UniProtKB/TrEMBL annotation:
GO molecular function: glucose-6-phosphate isomerase activity
Primary localisation category: cytoplasm
Family from the record: Belongs to the GPI family.
Pfam family, one: PGI
Summary of the function given for this chain in its UniProt record: Catalyzes the reversible isomerization of glucose-6-phosphate to fructose-6-phosphate.
Subcellular localization: Cytoplasm
Active-site annotation: 338 (proton donor), 369, 497
Pathway participation: Carbohydrate biosynthesis; gluconeogenesis; Carbohydrate degradation; glycolysis; D-glyceraldehyde 3-phosphate and glycerone phosphate from D-glucose: step 2/4
Protein name (Swiss-Prot/TrEMBL): Glucose-6-phosphate isomerase
Length: 532
C-alpha cells in the first residue's frame, strides 16, 4: 500500500492543487465533528489518494486496534499496559474492564474527590495557615505539566479560582521566580508526577517544601499529590486525603483528564472541568462511530501521513489563530513526538517508513512576523495546521477578532495560491524596468501550492477544548497504528536521564571526567572553571 501511495504521489506531485479547490471540493474534503469543521481541501489529496490512504487504515486494522484500546486491551505492549485515558472522560458511559475489573467506579470516585477538594479550596473551606488559598503551584514536568498548563491558559476566560503557577524545569530560575510571587501561608503546592520519582519534579518539590517550612508550621498540610505511587507520596509526607491516584493505564502525556488536571479544576471549577471531559467524550464517540471518510481524527492523521511519509515533508507547523492556545504547540510536541517519534515497530523490526514529524508552532499572528517568511518562500515545504475560532471572548473587541480570522484565512489562501512572476512583475512595474524589474519581481514571487489544513470551531469553551485535545490524541493513535509503532511508551527519554545521573557527581567535583568523551570532559572543565 505504501508503494502504491508513493507511486500515485509521483504522478500528481507537480500539479497545482490550487486549481482544484472549488465549492464541491471544499465540501468533499472536510469533516464535521459536533460543531467543529476540519478542512483539508487546500492539500494535494484527491479522491484516489484519499482512497489509498483509507486503505492504509484497513490494512493496519485501525478499527480493530481502536476497539481494543477502548476495551482496555494491553495495547502498550512493551510495558504490558492498557491505554485508557478515555475512561477518565467516560462520564456516563458503561463499564470499562481492565483484567476483568470495571475501572469506572474508582475513576468516578476520584473525580468526585477532586471536585470536592477543588471546591473546598475555591470556596475557602480548605485554607492555608494564613487563610484562603490565593495561589496554587503545580510542580510537574512533561505530561504532568504541559496539559494543565496549556489548558489553564486556554480557559483563562473561565478562570475564577486561585492563581495557578506551573513549575517544571529543574533550572532554579523556574521555581525561584515562582516562589517569589507567592505567600507560603496561602499557597497550595500540587506535586504532579505519575511515578513520583522524576528528578526534576522531586527536586522542585523539596525546594518548595523547604520554602514553605520557613513560614508554615505544618507545611505538609499545604501539599497535595497526583500520582500512581501511593507509597512514595506517603513517604514524602502528604496525607492520603490529599493524594489523588490514577492507574498505570493512563500515560503521562494523556493524563490531564484525571488527577493531573487538578490545577485546571482549581482554576475553572468542577463544572467547567466536567464540560472539558464531556468534549473529550464527544470526540471519543465520534472517533468510534464515524465512517473513516467522515472521521475527523482519522482524516487528520491521514493528511499528516500523506505529508510526512508520502510527500516527505518532515515538519508540521501548528498555528493557532487563538492566543488562548499559545501553549498548544508545546503540548502537541510532547503528545505527538514522544508518542510517534520512534524508529522501531511494535514487533522490534526497524520502521519501514519515517517516524512522526517534527511538530512546532506559535500563535498567529505573531508567527506571521517571525517565521512565515520561510513557510512562504523557503525551499522546504512545511504543511501548516491552522486553528481558528469564530468568536473570541472579548466581546467589545469583536472587530479585532474579525481581523484575526481574516489573517488566518489569508495565510492559508496565500500558501495555496502563491504569486506568479507576472503578478509579481505587475506589482513593481511602476518602479523598475528591464533586468532590474525581473530581479526585483523574482524576490516577490511566492511558489504557492503549499498545503495547509484549518480546524474551525465556534469558540474555545471548555467543551471545545476537550474536543480539540481528544481529536489530537486520537490522531496520534491512528498515526501510530498505521506506522505500526507503540505510541504509548517512551524509551527514548531514558538514556539522557541515566547519563545525567552519571554526570552529576562529575559536575559537583566528586568524580573525575576521565570516563567521558573529549568534548564532554572539555565542557565540564570549562564550566567548572567558570564556577559551576
Ligand atoms: O521522561 C519522560 C516522562 O516519563 C514523560 O513521559 C512524562 O510525562 C514525564 O516524564 C513526567 O513523568 P512523571 O509524571 O512520572 O513525573
Amino acid at each position: 500500500m505504501w508503494d502504491k501511495l508513493r507511486a500515485y504521489h509521483k504522478t500528481v506531485a507537480d500539479r497545482r492543487f490550487a486549481d482544484m479547490v472549488d465549492a464541491e471540493r471544499a465540501a468533499a474534503f472536510a469533516t464535521q465533528a459536533g460543531d467543529m469543521r476540519f478542512d483539508y481541501a487546500k492539500t494535494n489529496i484527491d479522491d484516489t489518494a484519499r482512497d489509498l490512504l483509507i486503505d492504509l487504515l484497513d490494512q493496519a486494522d485501525v478499527a480493530g486496534k481502536r476497539d481494543a484500546m477502548f476495551a482496555g486491551a494491553a495495547i502498550n505492549e512493551t510495558e504490558g499496559r492498557a491505554v485508557l485515558h478515555t475512561a477518565l472522560r467516560n462520564l456516563d458511559g458503561g463499564p470499562v474492564l481492565v483484567d476483568g475489573q470495571d475501572v469506572m467506579p474508582a475513576v468516578l470516585e476520584t473525580l468526585a474527590r477532586m471536585g470536592k477538594f477543588a471546591s473546598d479550596v475555591r470556596d475557602g473551606r480548605y485554607t492555608g495557615q494564613g487563610g484562603q488559598i490565593t495561589d496554587v503551584i503545580n510542580i510537574g514536568i512533561g505530561g504532568s505539566d504541559l496539559g494543565p498548563a496549556m489548558a489553564v491558559k486556554a480557559l483563562a476566560p473561565y478562570h475564577d479560582g486561585p492563581r495557578c503557577h506551573f513549575v517544571s524545569n529543574v533550572d532554579p530560575a523556574d521555581i525561584g521566580a515562582t516562589l517569589r510571587q507567592c505567600d507560603p501561608t496561602t499557597t497550595l503546592v500540587i506535586v504532579a508526577s505519575k511515578t513520583f520519582t522524576t528528578i526534576e519534579t522531586m527536586t522542585n518539590a523539596r525546594t518548595a517544601l523547604a520554602w514553605m517550612r520557613e513560614k508554615v508550621t505544618d507545611p505538609g498540610a499545604q501539599f497535595a499529590a497526583l500520582s500512581t505511587a501511593d507509597d512514595k507520596t506517603a513517604a514524602f509526607g502528604i496525607a492520603s486525603d490529599r493524594v489523588f491516584g490514577f492507574e498505570d493505564w493512563v500515560g503521562g502525556r494523556y493524563s490531564m483528564w484525571g488527577p493531573i488536571g487538578l490545577s485546571l479544576m482549581m482554576a475553572v471549577g468542577a463544572d467547567a472541568f466536567h464540560a472539558f471531559l464531556r468534549g473529550g467524550q464527544a470526540m471519543d464517540l465520534h472517533f468510534k462511530s464515524a465512517a473513516w471518510v467522515e472521521n475527523m481524527p482519522a482524516m487528520l492523521a491521514l493528511v499528516g501521513i500523506w505529508h510526512n511519509q508520502i510527500c516527505g515533508y518532515s515538519t508540521r507547523a501548528v498555528l493557532p489563530y487563538d492566543n488562548l492556545l499559545s501553549r498548544l504547540p508545546a503540548y502537541l510536541q510532547q503528545l505527538e513526538m514522544e508518542s510517534n517519534g520512534k524508529g522501531v515497530s511494535m514487533d522490534g523490526a526497524d520502521l519501514a517508513v519515517d517516524s512522526g514529524p517534527v511538530v512546532w508552532g506559535e500563535p498567529g499572528t505573531n508567527g506571521q512576523h517571525a517565521f512565515y517568511q520561510l513557510i512562504h518562500q523557503g525551499t522546504r515545504v512545511i504543511p501548516c495546521e491552522f486553528l481558528v475560532a469564530a468568536r473570541g471572548h472579548e466581546d467589545d473587541l469583536h472587530h479585532q477578532h474579525q481581523l484575526l480570522v481574516a489573517n488566518c484565512l489569508a495565510q492559508s489562501e496565500a500558501l495555496m495560491r502563491g504569486r506568479s512572476l507576472p503578478e509579481a512583475t505587475a506589482k513593481v512595474a511602476d518602479r523598475f524596468s528591464g533586468d532590474e524589474l525581473e530581479r526585483q519581481a523574482r524576490h516577490r514571487v511566492f511558489a504557492g501550492n503549499r498545503p495547509s489544513t484549518t480546524l474551525a470551531y465556534p469558540q474555545l469553551t471548555p467543551f471545545v477544548l476537550g474536543q480539540i485535545i481528544a481529536l489530537y490524541e486520537h490522531r496520534v493513535f491512528v498515526e501510530g497504528a498505521v506506522l505500526g509503532i507503540n505510541s504509548y511508551d517512551q524509551w527514548g527519554v531514558e538514556l539522557g536521564k541515566e547519563l545525567a545521573t552519571d554526570l552529576q557527581p562529575v559536575i559537583e567535583g566528586r568524580a573525575d571526567a576521565t570516563s567521558k568523551d573529549g568534548s564532554t570532559a572539555a565542557l565540564v572543565s570549562f564550566l567548572q572553571k567558570a564556577g559551576v
